[in-house]
Amino acid sequence: MIEQALRQVDIEHEFSLVFQPVIDLRSWRTVAFEALARWNSPELGDVPPGQFIPIAEQIGLINRLTTHLLGKALLIASDWPRHICLSFNLSAHDCASDEIAGQIIEIIKASHFDARRLDLEITETAIMQDVVKVQHTIDRLCRLGCGVALDDFGTGYSSLSQLLSLALTKIKIDRTFITGIDENPTSYKIVKSLVALSSDMQLECIAEGVETREELESLISLGCFFVQGYYFSQPMHHSHIDNWLKDN
Predict the structure, then answer these.
(1) 20 — phi, psi (to 5°)?
(2) Which residues neighbour 27 within 8 Å (Cβ) at sequence distance 6 or greater?
(3) Does residue 164 register a pLDDT over 80?
(4) What is the predicted pLDDT for the residue at 156?
(5) What are the φ and ψ backbone dihedral angles of 122, each rounded to 5 degrees?
(6) Do residues 5 and 208 make contact, with C-beta atoms less than 8 angstroms apart?
(7) Is 122 exposed, middle or buried (0-12, 13-18, 19+ CB in 10 A)?
């Protein structure tokens, strides 16, 4: 049913974005928002990204979706204060295609949004599908001035040396390691190692999925100062961002 609905989808009217803040714990201020895709289907209602994105990739829709939503996200972010950054997710298909990478770069240029305020997130799984092509895409984005974040770090099976050979600027620790970190010694040790690694490599380290005060305190003790998650805020409509920034 999802595939059938996607084949008939009206991207302009059915897809939207919400934004989740990223907090710098050293100042307790918002420094960025991650744009997250939402699909409200007339037939199916709200469909989670984890269900529609893989199918959109399979049927060749993901590139249209990426370019449309990126343009929309950049337009929204252009109204933000200049110290607030935007984070946007790219799919494996986006990263492995020179043509699509070129389209993404042209959208960024046409938006006149400062590329230095834009972080493009790429998953470990996407990188390993075609390391050479993804490396080329990352290099092109970096030359433009964009940051490149490794999303869901720790969930793939790639070699560390391959990942660290890429021109990354940030790593995002997957929420599976953050949930219950205060009660799970194994997760604590893994995150401790990842934070130390990011520091050694001079990469920013962001913890995803923070939901409790105890998790937050564990991350502070490990020196992980960039976080996002429901403890601070669920993803919000862009119309709420101004008020959020006044208070945060």
Answers:
(1) -110, 130
(2) none
(3) no
(4) 59
(5) -130, 135
(6) no
(7) buried
Token pair for 107: 């959208």
Q: Who contacts 182 (Cβ-Cβ below 8 Å, separation ≥6)?
A: 188, 212, 214, 215, 217, 218
Neighbour tally for 154: CB within 10 Å? 17
- State pLDDT tens for residues 25-73: 999 999 999 999 999 999 999 999 999 999 999 999 999 999 999 999 9
| Predicted TM-score of the model (pTM) | 0.94
* Tokens (6 digits) for 234: 């669920």
In sequence order, the 6+-apart residues with CB closer than 8 A to the CB of 180 are 187, 215
Distance CA 108, CA 60 (A): 22
> Residue ranges of the alpha helices (H) in 117-183?
124-129, 131-144, 160-164, 175-178
For the chain, list the domains and their CATH numbers: 2-247 (3.20.20.450)
